[in-house]
Amino acid sequence: MMLPLNASEAAVSTFLLVGIPGLEGVHIWISIPICLMYLMAILGNCTILFVIRTEPSLHEPMYHFLPMLALSDLGLSFSSLPTMLRIFLFNTIEISADACIAQEFFIHGFTEMESSVLLIMSFDRFVAIRNPLRYSSILTSSRVLHIGLAFAFKSILLVLPLPFTLKRLKYCNKCLLSHSFCLHQDVMKLACSDNRVNFYYGLFVALCMMSDSMLIAVFYVFILKTVLGVASHGEWLKSLNTCVSHTCAVLIFYVPNITLAIMHRLPKHVSPLAMILIAGTFLLVPPLMNPILYCVKTQQIRVKVLEKLENLGLMSK
Questions:
Q1: 276 and 178 in contact (C-beta within 8 Å)?
Q2: Residue-wise burial string across 28-49, b where 16 or more C-beta atoms lie within 10 A, e elsewhere
Q3: How far apart are CA 254 and CA 286, in angstroms?
Q4: Helix (H) or strand (E) holding 127
Q5: Domain residue ranges in the chain
Q6: Which residues cross the membrane (predicted)?
Q7: Model confidence pLDDT, tens digit, residues 4-32
């Protein structure tokens, strides 16, 4: 982790991002599906926010978590959108060090926030299945709001040191990043000064997110134990069906996230193209798929979304 600093080396104030190596000539065409995915993700999450905000029947604790998830997804989309569009639409790969550090803060912040929301939602499903009669008294609207604010504050505090630890480093000669956006583990590798603090604190943040995924797994073990104890086959199928959307959201978020973290720690054994594709999946797919999952699998939301579309004249009755 100790990198020698040569006083004769020129300081770097601008980093270079990458698109898809070898396909620079068709970046403009690749930008079309990327722009469509961003547009659908933004429209889908804004629809979730609008429907839950304007529909009184959805002002219940079990639906309060969806706006939190939608806000996290919107944050992820808007954090990576500027550099992705600049690269694929305009072939502009330069980014200032300050802008890069700011971007990595927002990307990691909203990633940590989404991880926290998914953890809270798993607890919500556990309470709903384990104590259905006491659910509304355990998770009141005010309690849900306080839990959400506490986890949002925790997410900000957890990633707040990252930009400061990157800012104190010196960068010289090397300026080429591995993605079309800035990540902490990618930027710190370019430093020519001691980056051990960054390495260990970045590892700590990654372990915190891993602990979220492990707690989610624990909640699902308890959920399965509770559901399998129900006598009726139809009842436990119905109970498990309420967890399908959340399970899919957990998988599409954590699988690419954990895979990317492993790839960054084993760079010599990983194809750069594979790393770019996994990173793109991590930022593009969850914001795109979460609104679709919850609209398709949650009948109350699906019905209200269709009603809103009919009222706006976008669908025939």
A1: yes
A2: eebbeebeebbebbbebbebbb
A3: 10
A4: helix 97-130
A5: 14-312
A6: 26-52, 64-85, 144-164, 199-224, 236-255, 275-296
A7: 444 445 567 789 998 888 787 888 898 89
Pairwise CA distance, residues 263 & 274, whole Å: 9
Token pair 């720690």 in the structure block, residue? 265
Of 238, 311, 288, residue with least CA distance to 37: 288
The partner residues of 171 in beta bridges, in order of sequence, read 191
Asked if 160 and 81 count as a contact pair (C-beta separation under 8 A), the reply is no
Cα 75 to Cα 113, 114, 163, 300, 301, distances in angstroms: 10, 10, 17, 25, 22
N-term to C-term CA, the chain: 63
User: Is domain 14-312 annotated with CATH 1.20.1070.10?
Assistant: yes
Angle, helix 61-90 to helix 97-130, in steps of 10 degrees: 150
**Residue carrying structure tokens 């999946």:** 281
Q: Give the number of other Cβ atoms within 10 Å of residue 243's Cβ.
A: 22
Cα 21 vs. chain centroid, distance in angstroms?
25
Amino acid residing at 142: S
- Pure H helices in 131-232: 135-138, 141-159, 161-167, 184-187, 196-228
Q: Which two tokens stand for residue 313?
A: 């004249």
Please provide the size of the chain in residues.
317
Q: What is the rounded CA–CA span in Å between residue 178 and residue 62?
A: 39
Q: What is the pTM of this model?
A: 0.89
Residue 295 near residue 46, CB atoms below 8 Å? no
In whole angstroms, give the CA distance from residue 58 to residue 24: 46
Each residue of 233-288: pLDDT tens digit? 777 777 777 788 888 999 999 999 988 888 877 767 778 888 888 888 888 999 99
